[in-house]
Amino acid sequence: MTSCLEYFDSLKTLDYxxxxxxxxxxxxxxxxxxxxxxxxxxxxxRAASIIGRHSHGTRLLKVVAGEGVGDVHLYSxxxxxxxxxxxxxxxxxxxxxxxxxxxxxxxxxxxxxxxELMRMLHGAxxxxxxxxxxxxxxISRKNIPAAMGLMAELQExxxxxxxxxxxxxxxxxxxxxxxxxxxGFADMEALGDATDRVGLSEAF
Length: 204
Known about the structure:
- With 204 residues, the chain is of the alpha+beta class.
- The protein has a single domain, classed as Alpha-Beta Plaits.
- The protein is 33% helix and 34% strand.
- It has 6 helices and 8 strands.
- It has an 8-stranded antiparallel beta barrel with strand order 1-3-4-2-5-7-8-6.
- The longest helix has 18 residues.
- It starts with a strand and ends in a 5-residue tail after the last helix.
């Protein structure tokens, strides 16, 4: 299992997220080079704006703890695989994206991994949440249905908490035998409070 904490306000950028009903979510991971963090952040904000024109919205989150500290995750949302395919072609032809990629080739500011594409199995992203705790479990595909059966128990444990739980599996990714679960909270304090009361409980 791997885990990380992501936070939205740490990038001090706009949230281009426009729609909550996303069947597919794409993620690009940007790791800034030392000495070029500001440039890398400026470029990933531009990328979020461009991709947002061709998707159902984008969102940027910075990893502040756990695996990949300092990385920036750029998420984009799609209603279907066909929508994701159309968006991919449109992005490739977008003159602003072409200019951004040319800048990156001429003067790299970091390493970009992805895009990966996930299919949502439970829940939907909530733009109101600024902090999220990610858990990625290695699991055989044949065991996914049983794992999803436990979501009802998880919902019962957290029913009194202001938490948004989403789960998904990869469609295109380096590692396919995983289940990703995200716990979204209003902010880092709310995340910490819920962890104190629920995450450390015997039931959880």
